[in-house]
Structure to design on (888 residues):
C-alpha cells in the first residue's frame, strides 16, 4: 500500500512539473542608467526558459515589472502589445531586448517624466521581476523570478589641470606639464583606462576643429590614475615663431605681440577591452575638452632707459 | 590644386589692377608648408615610444580679403591639408576621402564671406557660434547669410558638418564611420552694440540614415537634435551688465528607434522616439567692469538630457557657479585676479552626485622699476560619496598649487639683465574608500618645481641669448621622479636682417626611483628668410634624442630613439 502511495505521489509531482516552465533570470547587479542602453547591451539581462518535460508548447507572453526600493511600481510591460513566444523542448535563452522591450514598457508618472527629460532612471535600488503568462488568459505559467539591481548614471571625467585657458610658462612646459582630471563616477570595480590626448591648435584652426582633425602630440593610456606627468621633449617647438594663431597672440610689456601657442586636451574613458565607457555626443566616451596656452619663450625686450613700467593694461 | 592656382592668379591680377587704376585692395596671406617627421627606435622591436606627428604633410593656406569698395568686400578663407590625420570624432582613421568627405573634413576650410554693407553671405566652411546653448563648436560646409539692417539681426545657415563614412575594420586601426550630418540654423533678434541684445536661436542637426552602405557600429547611432534658445543681454551705465540665455533641446540618440507615444516631440522639426529626451539649460551672469575693478557672478545649469549637435562634447547634468574679480591698486602697481566657484555633477543622480570646488588667485606687484613679484594659488577639490548597499566607492581628491615668481631687472648703458626665479609646489591627494572594506586608501602626490632663468639684452648688439635651469621633483607612493633641465637659446639676425636665426639646446637628466637615469638632448632652430618685401621662407628643424637607463628591464636597457621634425614653407603677404 505504502509503495502504491509513493508511486502515485511521484507521478502527480512529475505531471505538475511537466505542465510548468522553469526559468532562470540572470542580471547584472549594476545596470546602465540609460534604459535604451539595456537593449544595446543585451547581455545585461538573460532569461533561460526550460521546457524539459515535453509539455505542449503554449503561446506565452512575458511581463516584466520594475519596482522601486520601497516597492512602488516603476514600470510594467503592456502585455496587450507583448510578443508571443512558444517554448518547445529544451532551453530557450532570451536577452534584454526580449525581456525588456523598451517601447512597450509603461512607466508611472514621475518615472515617465524623468525618462522624457533624461532617458534615465534616477540612481537608486530597484527590483526587476519577470513572469511568463499564457497569452490567452494571462495565467502564470512559471514561478515569478525577481532580481535586485542598482542604477548609477555614469559621469565622465572632468579635465581639471591645466585649467581652461590656463597660461603656462614655456620654460616649465618644455620640461614637463602635469595633467589632472576627476575620476569616472561611479568608480567601476575594474580599472578604467584613461586615454589622455593633447592636440596642438594650428594656425587658423578653431579649438574643437583641432581635436577633430589633428594627430595628437600626446596619446597616452593611463590605467586607473587621474594624473599624468608629460615630458614634452621638444614637441612644443618655439612658441613665438612666425606661425602664430592670431587668437593666441598677447601683448607684452611694450605692447608688442608676444605670441604663444594653444593646445586642447581631453580624456577618453575606456574599459579593459579599450571600448568607450559612458556616453558623449560622439559615442566615444570623451570628456569635454579644454584649452591651455603655452606662453612664449622670451618676454619682450626692456627699453634702455626704464621709466615707470605699468604692467596693467 | 588647379582651382587654387586659378584663384591665386586671379587675385594677383586683381592686385595689379588695383594698384594701377581702382581702389580695389587685397590684404591677407597665402602660403604652402611642408612638414616631415622621422622616428628611429633602438633596439629593433622597441615600441615604447610612438610617433607624434604625421610622417609627411603639406598644408595650404589662402586667406586674402579683397576690398572692392568701401561697402563691398570678399574675405576668402581656404586652409587645407593633403593627407587626413583625424584621430578623434567622425573622421577618425580615414585615409582615402571622396570629394564630399574632403570638403567637410574638419581639417579643411573652404570659406567665402562676400559682404555688402550690412549683408554678409556665408558660403563654404563656416564656424558659426550663434550662442553658448544653441550651436557653435562645429564647422559646417554649406550656405547662409547674416543680415544686420539697423538694429535687426537675421541669420540663417544650412549645410553638412560631416559626410557619410563607411565603417571599416581594415586597414588597422580601422575607420569607425559616421552618418552624414545635416544642420540648419536660424536666428532672429535685435541688437544695439554696448546696449542690448535680444535673440531667438533655432538649430537642428540630423544624421541621414541612407548616407552609408556600411553603417558605423553602436554606440555610434544616427542622431537628431533640435534646439530653441533665447538670449537677453543688457549693458547698463557705469559698466554694469547682465547676460542670460535659456534653452530647450530635444535629442534623439538613435533614429532607428520606434516612435514614443508617451512623449510629445516638436513637429515638424523632430518626432519623439524611444531614445528621445527633452531637457533644459540656462545660464546667467551679471557684474561690473571698469578700468581698475571687475566683479562678476555667473551660473550655468545643464540638464541631464540636454544634448546639442552643435556642441557634441558639452557635459550635461551639472550646475556650476563662479564669483570672479579683478582689481588694480597702489597706482596700478598691484593687480589681483581671483575666482571661486563650485560645480555639481550628476545633479540628477543623488547617489553619485559629485561636487568640485575650484578657487584660484593671482597676485602681481611691481615694487619698483627693477623688482616684481607674482604669486598664484590654485585649489580644486572633488568629492563623491559612495554607497554601502551597492558597493560604489567614495572618492575624494584635493589639489593645491602655489607658485612664487620674483623677477629682477637691472640695466646699464649697454645692456639690461632680467633674472627670474620661480618656485611651484603642487600637492595632490586622492582618497578612495572601497566597499565593503571601508578602509580609506590615500595616494599623496607632491611636486616641487624650481626654475631660474636669465635673459641679457644688448642694446648695441643684435644677438639675443637666454638661459634657464629647472629642477622638478615628484613624489608619490612608491614613485619618485626627478627632472633636471638646462636650456640655452640664441637669436641673431644676419644678412642685413633678412635672415633671422634662432637656436635652442636643451638637456634633461631624469630619474625614476632607483633606476639609472635617462638622458634627453633636444636641439632646434628656426631660419626665417625674407626673400622679398612680401615673401618669406620659414624653416624649423628640431631633433630629440632620448636614451633610457635601465627602467625598462634588461631587454631594453639603454633603449633610445631619435625623433626629428622638419617644417619649411613660403608665406606671401597681400599688401
Amino acid at each position: 500500500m505504502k509503495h502504491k502511495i509513493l508511486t502515485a505521489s511521484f507521478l502527480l509531482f512529475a505531471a505538475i512539473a511537466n505542465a510548468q516552465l522553469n526559468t532562470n533570470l540572470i542580471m547584472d547587479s549594476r545596470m546602465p542608467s540609460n534604459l535604451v542602453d539595456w537593449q544595446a547591451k543585451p547581455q545585461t539581462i538573460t532569461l533561460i526558459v526550460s521546457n524539459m518535460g515535453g509539455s505542449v508548447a503554449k503561446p506565452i507572453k512575458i511581463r516584466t515589472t520594475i519596482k522601486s526600493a520601497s516597492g512602488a511600481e516603476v514600470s510594467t510591460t503592456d502585455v496587450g502589445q507583448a510578443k508571443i513566444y512558444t517554448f518547445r523542448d529544451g532551453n530557450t535563452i532570451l536577452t534584454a531586448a526580449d525581456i525588456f522591450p523598451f517601447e512597450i514598457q509603461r512607466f508611472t508618472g514621475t518615472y515617465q517624466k524623468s525618462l522624457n527629460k533624461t532617458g534615465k532612471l534616477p540612481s537608486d535600488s530597484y527590483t526587476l521581476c519577470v513572469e511568463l503568462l499564457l497569452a490567452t488568459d494571462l495565467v502564470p505559467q512559471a514561478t515569478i523570478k525577481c532580481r535586485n539591481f542598482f542604477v548609477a548614471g555614469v559621469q565622465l571625467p572632468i579635465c581639471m589641470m591645466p585649467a581652461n585657458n590656463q597660461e603656462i610658462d614655456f620654460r616649465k612646459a618644455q620640461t614637463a606639464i602635469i595633467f589632472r582630471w576627476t575620476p569616472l563616477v561611479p568608480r567601476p570595480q575594474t580599472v578604467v583606462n584613461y586615454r589622455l590626448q593633447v592636440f596642438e591648435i594650428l594656425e587658423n584652426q578653431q579649438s574643437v576643429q583641432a581635436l577633430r582633425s589633428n594627430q595628437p602630440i600626446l596619446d597616452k593610456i593611463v590605467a586607473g590614475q587621474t594624473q599624468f606627468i608629460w615630458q614634452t621633449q621638444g614637441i612644443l617647438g618655439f612658441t613665438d615663431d612666425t606661425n602664430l594663431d592670431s587668437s593666441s597672440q598677447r601683448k607684452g610689456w611694450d605692447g608688442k605681440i608676444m605670441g604663444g601657442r594653444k593646445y586642447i586636451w581631453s580624456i577618453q574613458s575606456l574599459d579593459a577591452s579599450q571600448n568607450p565607457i559612458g556616453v558623449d555626443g560622439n559615442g566615444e566616451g570623451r570628456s569635454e575638452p579644454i584649452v591651455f596656452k603655452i606662453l612664449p619663450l622670451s618676454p619682450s625686450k626692456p627699453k634702455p632707459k626704464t621709466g615707470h613700467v605699468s604692467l596693467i593694461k | 590644386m588647379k582651382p587654387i592656382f586659378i584663384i591665386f592668379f586671379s587675385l594677383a591680377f586683381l592686385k595689379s589692377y588695383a594698384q594701377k587704376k581702382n581702389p580695389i585692395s587685397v590684404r591677407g596671406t597665402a602660403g604652402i608648408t611642408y612638414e616631415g617627421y622621422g622616428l628611429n627606435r633602438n633596439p629593433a622591436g622597441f615600441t615604447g615610444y610612438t610617433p607624434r606627428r604625421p610622417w609627411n604633410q603639406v598644408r595650404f593656406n589662402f586667406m586674402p580679403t579683397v576690398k572692392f569698395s568701401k561697402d563691398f568686400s570678399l574675405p576668402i578663407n581656404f586652409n587645407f591639408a593633403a593627407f587626413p590625420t583625424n584621430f578623434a570624432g567622425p573622421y577618425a582613421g580615414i585615409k582615402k576621402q571622396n570629394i564630399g568627405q574632403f570638403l567637410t573634413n574638419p581639417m579643411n576650410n573652404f570659406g567665402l564671406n562676400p559682404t555688402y554693407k550690412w549683408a554678409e553671405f556665408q558660403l563654404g566652411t563656416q564656424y558659426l557660434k550663434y550662442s553658448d546653448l544653441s550651436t557653435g563648436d562645429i564647422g559646417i560646409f554649406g550656405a547662409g547669410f547674416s543680415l544686420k539692417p539697423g538694429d535687426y539681426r537675421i541669420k540663417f545657415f544650412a549645410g553638412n558638418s560631416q559626410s557619410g563614412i563607411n565603417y571599416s575594420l581594415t586597414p588597422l586601426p580601422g575607420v569607425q564611420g559616421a552618418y552624414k550630418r545635416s544642420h540648419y540654423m536660424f536666428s532672429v533678434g535685435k541688437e544695439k552694440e554696448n546696449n542690448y541684445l535680444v535673440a531667438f536661436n533655432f538649430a537642428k542637426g540630423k544624421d541621414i540614415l541612407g548616407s552609408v552602405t556600411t553603417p558605423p557600429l553602436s554606440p555610434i547611432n544616427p542622431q537628431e537634435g533640435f534646439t530653441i534658445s533665447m538670449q537677453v543681454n543688457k549693458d547698463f551705465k557705469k559698466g554694469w551688465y547682465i547676460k542670460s540665455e535659456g534653452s530647450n533641446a530635444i535629442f534623439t540618440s538613435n533614429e532607428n528607434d520606434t516612435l514614443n507615444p508617451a512623449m510629445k516631440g516638436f513637429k515638424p522639426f523632430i518626432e519623439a522616439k524611444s531614445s528621445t529626451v527633452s531637457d533644459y539649460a540656462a545660464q546667467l551672469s551679471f557684474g561690473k567692469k571698469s578700468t581698475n575693478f571687475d566683479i562678476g557672478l555667473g551660473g550655468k545649469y545643464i540638464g541631464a538630457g540636454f544634448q546639442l549637435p552643435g556642441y557634441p562634447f558639452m557635459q550635461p547634468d551639472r550646475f556650476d557657479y563662479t564669483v570672479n574679480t579683478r582689481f588694480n591698486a597702489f597706482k596700478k602697481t598691484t593687480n589681483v585676479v581671483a575666482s571661486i566657484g563650485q560645480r555639481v555633477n550628476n545633479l540628477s543622480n543623488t547617489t553619485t552626485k559629485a561636487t568640485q570646488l575650484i578657487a584660484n588667485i593671482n597676485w602681481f606687484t611691481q615694487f619698483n622699476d627693477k623688482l616684481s613679484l607674482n604669486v598664484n594659488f590654485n585649489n580644486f577639490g572633488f568629492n563623491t560619496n559612495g554607497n554601502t548597499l551597492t558597493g560604489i566607492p567614495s572618492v575624494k581628491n584635493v589639489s593645491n598649487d602655489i607658485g612664487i615668481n620674483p623677477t629682477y631687472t637691472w640695466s646699464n648703458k649697454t645692456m639690461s639683465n632680467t633674472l627670474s626665479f620661480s618656485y611651484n609646489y603642487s600637492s595632490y591627494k586622492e582618497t578612495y574608500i572601497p566597499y565593503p572594506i571601508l578602509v580609506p586608501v590615500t595616494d599623496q602626490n607632491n611636486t616641487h618645481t624650481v626654475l631660474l632663468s636669465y635673459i641679457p639684452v644688448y642694446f648695441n648688439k643684435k644677438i639675443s641669448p637666454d638661459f634657464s635651469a629647472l629642477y622638478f621633483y615628484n613624489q608619490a607612493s612608491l614613485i619618485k621622479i626627478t627632472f633636471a633641465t638646462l636650456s640655452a637659446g640664441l637669436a641673431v639676425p644676419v644678412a642685413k636682417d633678412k635672415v633671422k636665426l634662432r637656436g635652442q639646446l636643451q638637456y634633461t637628466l631624469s630619474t625614476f626611483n632607483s633606476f639609472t637615469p635617462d638622458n634627453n638632448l633636444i636641439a632646434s632652430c628656426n631660419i626665417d628668410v625674407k626673400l622679398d618685401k612680401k615673401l618669406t621662407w620659414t624653416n624649423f628643424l628640431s631633433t630629440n634624442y632620448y636614451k633610457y637607463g635601465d627602467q625598462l628591464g634588461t631587454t631594453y636597457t639603454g633603449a633610445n630613439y631619435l625623433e626629428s621634425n622638419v617644417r619649411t614653407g613660403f608665406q606671401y603677404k597681400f599688401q
